[in-house]
Design goal:
The structure holds five protein chains of five kinds.
Chain B: H1 3-24, H2 28-52, H3 60-90
Helix pairs in contact in B: 1-2, 2-3
Chain C: H1 5-23, H2 27-47, H3 51-75, H4 91-113, H5 115-119, H6 130-140, H7 142-163, H8 175-182
Helix pairs in contact in C: 1-2, 2-3
Chain E: H1 4-8, H2 10-20, H3 27-61, H4 77-87, H5 98-115, H6 133-141, H7 143-154, H8 158-189, H9 194-202, E1 204-205, E2 208-209, H10 216-232, H11 244-247, H12 257-282, H13 298-319, H14 325-352, H15 355-358, H16 361-388
Antiparallel strand pairs in E: 1-2
Classes of the chains: A alpha+beta, B mainly alpha, C mainly alpha, D mainly alpha, E mainly alpha.
Chain lengths: 214, 103, 183, 704, 402
């Protein structure tokens, strides 16, 4: 019968209409600025740069190898290499990015940069409230804006971060072991005095390495 | 000038405008529009004579105008349908180009 | 007693609309100007006390015929492309204008010399109600009304038949169309 | 319209009875071919309502047998109004019920019979129109209205007989029926005009002013015309011409058997219940006009028809043709009854005959349907086994037709014979009628033996194995046999009983065929008294009336004799093969062939009337070709000669100067044709200028 | 204590008071200005209210909150919208016909406001009591089609032209059932005057008002009228002139800012106007349904009914999906038109079946009701079957998947 379906539909909407005042469960809307959904662990968008320690300048993991810049499909990464070098976390002398810009207006969150980075320097973020009133500069993020500490990474992606940290610790340990062995060999060769130079940290271990290189 | 004469003059002017359009414009649609204007001028005459005539209570002029409007609707519909048919046939609605019936 | 102010304004509106309709270059503009003229005329009828006729004029001319004209313009592709030159300086056009002028002159002359128009005293506006018009239509003029209704029906059918596209010689299953699409 | 207070609702709305089927016909004429159910529903529904209304009318007539008349003005001639109207009296009421009831049954039966026809909707359209027109004939209170309906009846009869117009035979039969009845209708028309001239009205009853009422009839009886006949006699006979045409009386009976080409329901409807009865009804209706002289003619014509047709029926082999001749014969009986006994006698037989003849026709239709459209009784036989219902009902109908005691036909036929016996003018019709009754019983017995009893002699009505494989035919209806003709094994289809929609009307009709006679027995002549508007009671004492009981015994004996003769010839030794000669044929081949060829009436007409017409036509053609044509040709030759002469003059004398002038004209024309340049605006411009000039002239003229 | 009549006529009294205190030569002008201004203000305010109610209502029907940010419960949303549309850039396409483009929304809104002149919003609350009120309403309303065409054509955009053509075709098609479905009311009332029609329905017998909607033809006519009105105002489910999925936004694609807001305003005003007409014709205008409710002021009745109908519009919009063009036209010509004619016939029958024909009131009235309802119902079933034929949804068959 013509009209039957319409009446059924009207009843359905009326039930929704009145029901939404009675049963709060019906309302699926999240009142956004006040209520927020917790994002799932795997949620990700827009890359950021990781640094170790507390100093973004010194601890920046990026060595400006420019692989990500070349791989980026929309070409939203712009890197300028520094002239000088500084030691990385294992104490190796590496270049660092003088300029590292990402145009997030162009970025498509494809995560390719993360996958190609050999230095665990770039990771995906979870930000989404990005609106800005600056139409041109606002979404061009510089190195300073991009750099975030490892603790932040551990907070937003705990599992991934743990895995990365573990690997890096292993690398560090290997590097230290190698350095220690080299140092021992060098010490043996040069002066057999017992090395009290069991300095703490990477900077201490870096010196012999540098020496080796030289 | 009496109101009746005023109405008649307006009507005459409207009629002439319509006629001028019908005579000079090349688009068949505008020719039809001109004819509609002439028809309307005639209607105005009827209304004027009914209003200022001797027996407005007989409603003759008014009723005639109503009928005339109805006829005009039919005329316009058929006329425009004709124009459409001609346009489909000749791919133009320019009356100066539609001369197949010439002697 | 002369003409009232409102009459003057409406007359000017009507005539201006008419002139614009007959002289503008784009057909759609002409149609819109025509609507102004029709609407002015409807208002004139109202002004003259012919309420029903005025509203019928509005309903039929503005509501239907104007739309029809507009449709016709668009269907004949008059709404786009280069507009035609409004005043062709051809001898035929000039002859037409002269003929129209002559008609106007004669009509004016007729009005001026007419004793009826001169003597037409201003009468009080007749009080016609819808009811009276209805009775007139249903009693005295019922036969013309029926005839008009019949004629309208005939015109409707005729217009539909005229405006229908002629059937082309296509196979009934529409394969030609499909092939055409594929091609 | 005049409505006296006494006129009840049903009388006022009696027109609905014919109008409804006509309306249904009109509606179904607009239907698409595929809307079969709708058209059948329309026809049957309208007929059902008509039946209900008829029953109401009947009840009204029962309650108050006085004649009720409604007239209305139809058309104005000068200062005179032609009035039409309808009436309700017992005669009309009985006819109404009969026609609408039998009609309804036939409609229902047609559902089944025509189920596979492509033109189902057209059929029901015609059928409804026919029924409506027939009902119109019944209720008409004006000879003019009756004549109009009468002609519509004729038209629809033409359409229905020629329903299968693809068959040449059907088309020819339709034409024959139409033209033959027109011959009679010519008489009717003349009679009608004469009647109008005499009485100034065509209304039958109009409170004393009608043409059938005392004053008019007395006036006409007093007026003597040529050959010493009273005018009423002459008019009555002319009207009887029409009745004879429609009712198939000798010599206009020839169309009726041929009309069997139509579908069987048509045969039943037209040739049993209604159209042929229309003639009888017409005579009954105008009975007051029928003077004793006229009645004598009617009686004789009826009696001759009765025996004449019965004779022919004996030797026919087509199942429907036998019934057709039987119908002609029974119509003769009705006319005889009208002539010798009055309205009630004839009408009683009409009513009973309508039921049992409809039954017989429908039964025959059922047989034909069951035998895959074969109509030859020689190819049947033994159908009793396959079609028990049809057989039983057919037997009822057959016994009723024969006048077997206590069946309906017995009472009505007996009434006729009784009346004929008591007729003062001559005993001839009685003897003719008695012999006719014998023959009736005889040929019906013959038919029964051929069709239902004896052995199956079905011709090789083979069915294709594909149809069998497709289960179109139930397995119990087929049987493999060895073909007698070709010697091959083929599958033949058993005759089968018809579907319920066809057999149920048969059963209903059979009940009537058995019982209907009891409304008009001598002991309780309710029917007769009802028509006369009297009351009656049951009184067995009436049997003791002089001569009645012996006559009934005699007529029963005649029937038994006919049945016995039939058994003697056909029941004793049933024929075994379809090609075997008829039992009568063996004894008297000459007579049998004459009868089988319908006593050569058609041939007689062929060599007399038709030959005369053809001769006239040839003569006219000859006249046209040679006399008039010759004259024309001579004139033409003369003109041609003049033409040659003129041409010579023209070519050599005139042309020299003329050509030049022509060229000038052509040049002028070309110049002028520029005006007609096809541009609308040019024309419009000319009109405008003309308008200006005209207006100027007018104004100038009025200025002074 | 103020009597019921005083509350009822409070606005009329107020206006009379103001007019009375103005200088005599200006009185007519002031009176007109007050009426016009009242109509504009009241209905524009109603428009503002309706937009927010519509959005909230639709939200609730879809189990959402709807706007609730600007002001408490989002009631100031229309103000925000107004500010936004007023401050937005008014973009006009370069190829557009500027004059016509500019005029179209103005003509549309103006014409729609003109129709309010004859609408009786309360007892003695009609701007102009025209003798041919209904005719006036339709005649003036017919001009909206032209405005739509102007907008569509002048934008010089094929989508807008298509949208305009669709809108005009739809409006013309549905204008016929719209007018025809109001014919029975005019037939029964014997007048074209809106005030007269309402007064006809305000009469009561046995405590019940003579609303047309209480009769079978009135009920059917009302439903048909509202369907046609929905189509006439291009509201969902007949909103395909602005079908976003096909032609983006129809005839007002190229409008932005305030002109767009005007189109929006015109659409709602049209909806109110046509609802007001429906109320006047079928729902007894400003009258109360039962005589014991007569103490409630007439304008409350009118606006109450108006809000109910508006809620109906919103409800339907929240329920029914958009039609396809061919369905729309089929529906108009194969269902609406025959049904309106049937309703006219039924109304005639109603008139004919007076107490003299069907017998005394209680039983006779029921018989009359049933007969007239049957006359409408039977063709409805037939027509509905005709519309539904071929619409049976068959089981989906997959050619390769199974």
């Amino acid at each position: 019968m013509l009209g039957e379906g319409i009446i059924q539909g009207l009843v359905e909407t009326a039930r929704n209409f009145f029901g939404s005042y009675v049963e709060k469960d019906r309302l699926t809307t999240v009142q956004y600025p006040e209520q927020r959904l917790t994002l799932p662990e795997a949620s990700r968008n827009f890359p950021f740069l990781l640094y170790d320690g507390t100093d973004p300048e010194a601890g920046l993991r990026c060595v400006a190898c420019q692989i990500c810049e070349k791989e980026c499909p929309p070409r939203c990464i712009h890197i300028e290499k520094s002239k000088d070098k500084k030691p990385d976390f294992v104490g190796k002398q590496q270049a660092y990015p003088a300029v590292f810009d990402i145009d997030v207006a162009v970025c498509m969150s494809c995560q390719i940069c993360v996958e190609v980075c050999p230095f665990d320097a770039i990771r995906m973020d979870k930000v989404y409230e990005l609106s800005t009133s600056d139409r041109f500069g606002g979404l061009l993020w510089t190195k300073e804006q991009l750099s975030k500490p490892n603790e932040y990474y551990q907070k937003i992606h705990p599992l991934e971060a743990a895995e990365t940290d573990e690997r890096r610790e292993k690398e560090l340990a290997e590097a230290q072991a190698k350095a220690a062995a080299a140092a021992a060999k060098a010490a043996q060769a040069a002066n057999p005095a017992p090395g009290d130079a069991s300095g703490n940290g990477a900077s201490a271990a870096a010196k012999p390495t540098t020496a080796v290189h030289e | 000038m009496t109101p009746l004469a005023g109405c008649l003059l307006v009507s005459a002017l409207l009629f002439s405008i319509g006629l001028a359009g019908a005579l000079t414009r090349r688009s068949a649609i505008l020719v039809l529009a001109g004819i509609e204007l002439m028809l309307n001028a005639a209607n105005l005459n009827f209304i004027a004579f009914w209003r200022f005539g001797a027996h407005p209570e007989f409603l003759t002029g008014l009723i005639f105008v109503i009928f005339s409007i109805a006829v005009a609707a039919a005329e316009a519909a058929v006329g425009l349908a004709l124009i459409l048919a001609i346009y489909r046939h000749a791919r133009t609605s320019d009356v100066s180009e539609i001369t197949e019936m010439k002697g | 007693m002369g003409m009232t102010f409102s009459f003057l304004i409406l007359a000017i509106m009507t005539l201006a609309g008419g002139v614009a309709a007959m002289t503008m270059r784009r057909l759609v503009h002409c149609a819109l100007a025509l609507v102004v003229s029709f609407a002015g005329l409807a208002a004139l009828y109202l002004n003259l006390g012919a309420e029903f006729a005025g509203l019928a004029q509005l309903l039929v001319y503005v509501g239907a015929i104007a739309i029809l004209i507009v449709f016709a313009i668009l269907l004949t592709r008059g709404g786009e492309g280069e507009p035609e030159g409004s005043f062709s300086p051809s001898p035929a056009g000039i002859a037409g204008a002269v003929a129209a002028l002559a008609v106007f002159a004669v009509l004016t002359w007729a009005v001026e010399t007419s004793s009826v128009a001169r003597a037409g005293a201003a009468v009080a506006a007749p009080q016609t109600t819808m009811r009276e018009i209805g009775f007139a239509l249903m009693q005295r003029y019922v036969l013309p009304l029926e005839v008009i209704a019949l004629m309208l029906t005939a015109a409707l059918i005729g217009a539909v038949i005229l405006a229908l596209r002629e059937k082309r010689n296509e196979p009934a299953d529409g394969t030609a169309q499909k092939q055409g699409l594929r091609a | 319209m005049t409505h006296p207070e006494s006129v009840t609702w049903i009388v006022r709305n009696l027109w609905l009875i014919p109008a409804l089927p006509v309306a249904a016909a009109g509606a179904s004429a607009l239907l698409k071919r595929s809307q079969r159910r709708l058209s059948a529903g329309l026809a049957i529904g309208s007929m059902g309502i008509s039946l209900v209304l008829s029953l109401m009318a009947f009840a009204q007539a029962l309650a108050d047998p006085a004649r009720r008349v409604v007239t209305f003005n139809w058309m104005q001639f000068g200062d005179q109004w032609v009035q039409l109207g309808w009436l309700l009296d017992p005669l009309a009421a009985v006819m109404l019920v009969m026609v609408s009831f039998v009609g309804l049954l036939i409609f229902i039966y047609s559902l089944g019979y025509m189920a596979h026809d492509d033109n189902f909707t057209r059929f029901f359209c015609f059928l409804s129109l026919f029924a409506g027109a027939m009902l119109g004939v019944v209720i008409a209170n004006s000879l003019l209205l009756l004549f109009m309906c009468w002609e519509v009846v004729g038209l629809t009869s033409y359409l229905l007989i020629g329903f299968w117009f693809q068959r040449p035979a059907a088309a020819a039969a339709a034409k024959k029926a139409f033209i033959t009845t027109r011959v009679g209708d010519l008489g009717l028309l003349i009679g009608m005009v004469w009647l109008y001239a005499q009485t100034g009205t065509l209304l039958f009853y109009n409170s004393g002013a009608g043409c059938l009422e005392q004053t008019a009839v007395a006036g006409m009886e007093a007026h003597i015309t040529a050959a010493g006949m009273a005018v009423s006699t002459a008019i009555g006979l002319l009207i009887f011409c029409g009745a004879a045409g429609k009712s198939g009386q000798v010599p206009l009976h020839v169309w009726l058997p041929d009309a069997m080409e139509g579908p069987t329901p048509v045969s039943a409807l037209i040739h049993a219940a209604t159209m042929v009865a229309a003639g009888v009804y017409l005579v009954a209706r105008v009975y007051p006009l029928m003077s004793p002289d006229a009645r004598e003619v009617v009686a004789w014509v009826g009696a001759i028809t009765a025996i004449f047709a019965a004779c022919i029926a004996v030797a026919q082999n087509d199942i429907k043709r036998i019934l057709a001749y039987s119908t002609v014969s029974q119509l003769g009986y009705m006319m005889l009854g009208l002539g010798v006994g009055g309205v009630a006698v004839g009408m009683f037989h009409l009513i009973t005959h309508a039921f049992f003849k409809a039954l017989l026709f429908l039964g025959a239709g059922s047989v034909i349907h069951g035998c895959t459209e074969d109509q030859d009784i020689r190819n049947m036989g033994g159908l009793r086994r396959f079609m028990p219902v049809t057989f039983a009902t057919y037997t009822c109908g057959m016994l009723a037709l024969c006048g077997f005691p206590l069946f309906a036909g017995f009472w009505s036929k007996d009434a006729i014979l009784h009346a004929a016996h008591g007729w003062g003018v001559s005993q001839g019709p009685f003897y003719l009628g008695a012999v006719g009754a014998l023959l009736t019983a005889f040929y019906m017995t013959r038919q029964m033996y051929y069709v239902f009893l004896g052995q199956r002699r079905l011709a090789e009505a083979t069915v294709s194995p594909a149809a069998v494989a497709a289960h179109e035919i139930p397995a119990e209806q087929i049987e493999p046999v060895v073909s007698a003709r070709t010697g091959e094994v083929c599958i033949i289809e058993h005759p089968h009983e018809s579907p319920g929609v066809m057999t149920r009307p048969l059963v209903v009709l059979a009940v009537f065929a058995v019982l209907l006679g009891f409304v008009g027995t001598p002991a309780w002549p309710w029917f007769q008294s009802f028509l006369a508007g009297e009351s009656t009671g049951l009184d067995f004492g009436r049997f003791s009336e002089a001569g009645l009981l012996p006559l009934m015994v005699i007529s029963s004996l005649i029937v038994f004799a006919g049945l016995g003769l039939g058994w003697w010839f056909y029941g004793r030794k049933p024929i075994l093969h379809a090609t075997d000669p008829d039992a009568l044929e063996k004894i008297q081949p000459g007579v049998f062939h004459a009868l089988a060829n319908r006593l050569y009436v058609d041939e007689l007409y062929g060599v007399t009337v038709i030959a005369l017409t053809r001769f006239c036509a040839r003569f006219a053609a000859w006249l046209d070709r040679w006399i008039f044509g010759g004259a024309v040709r001579i004139v033409a030759w003369m003109v041609t000669g003049m033409g040659w002469l003129d041409a010579g003059v023209d070519k050599f004398v005139v042309n020299g100067g003329f050509d030049e002038g022509c060229r000038d004209v052509a040049r002028g024309g070309r110049l002028l044709s520029h005006l007609q340049n096809g541009r609308v605006q040019n024309y419009l411009r000319v009109i405008a200028v003309a308008l200006v000039v005209l207006a100027a002239i007018l104004l100038w003229g009025r200025r002074g | 204590m103020i009597s019921a009549g005083a509350v009822d006529q409070v606005f009329v009294t107020l206006k009379d008071w103001i007019v009375f205190h103005t200088p005599a030569p200006l009185q007519t002008l002031v009176s007109i200005v007050i009426e016009v201004a009242t109509i504009i203000v009241v209905f524009a305010a109603l428009f503002a209210l309706t937009t927010v109610f519509e959005r909230k209502g639709l939200g609730r029907m879809q189990n959402r909150y709807g706007p609730n940010r600007v002001g408490p419960f989002g009631v100031f949303q229309p103000i925000a919208d107004a500010v936004k549309s007023l401050t937005k850039e008014d973009v006009v396409p370069r190829a557009a016909d500027h004059v016509v483009h500019y005029l179209a929304p103005l003509v549309l809104v103006g014409v729609v406001f003109l129709t309010y002149a004859v609408l009786p919003v309360g007892r003695n609350m009609t701007a102009v009591n025209l003798d041919a009120g209904v005719l006036y309403f339709f005649a003036v309303g017919a001009a909206t089609e032209l405005a739509v065409f102007m907008a569509g054509w002048s934008s010089h955009n094929k989508y807008s032209l298509l949208g305009a053509m669709r809108a005009i075709a739809q409006m013309i098609s549905y204008e016929i059932p719209l007018i025809l479905s109001s014919v029975p009311v005019i037939m029964m009332a014997g007048t074209l005057s809106m005030v007269g029609i309402v007064e006809q329905q305000a009469r009561t017998s046995g405590g019940l008002a003579h609303w047309n909607v209480f009769t079978p033809w009135g009920l059917a006519g009302f439903i048909l009228f509202m369907i046609a009105a929905t189509a006439e105002t291009n509201r969902s489910p007949f909103d395909l002139p602005e079908g976003e999925s096909e032609i983006i936004a129809g005839y007002f694609i190229e409008y932005s800012g305030f002109k767009f807001a005007l189109f929006f305003l015109a659409e709602y005003l049209e909806m109110f106007a046509v609802s007001g007409l429906g109320i006047t014709l079928f729902l007894g205008g400003w009258s109360a349904p039962f005589s014991f409710l007569g103490w409630i002021p007439s304008w409350i009745w009118f606006f109450g009914k108006l809000l109910t109908l508006i809620f109906g519009f919103i409800w339907v919009r929240g329920t029914v999906p958009r039609l396809r063009m061919d369905q729309l036209m089929n529906f108009a010509w194969k269902f609406m038109l025959p049904m309106t004619l049937i309703v006219i016939f039924s109304a005639g029958l109603w008139r004919f079946l007076s107490a003299a024909v069907v017998g005394p009131m209680p039983l006779g009235g029921v018989i009359r009701w049933l007969v007239c309802a049957l006359v409408i119902l039977a063709p409805y079933i037939t027509l509905a079957r005709g519309l539904e034929r071929g619409r049976r949804i068959e089981k989906r068959v997959y050619r390769y998947a199974e």
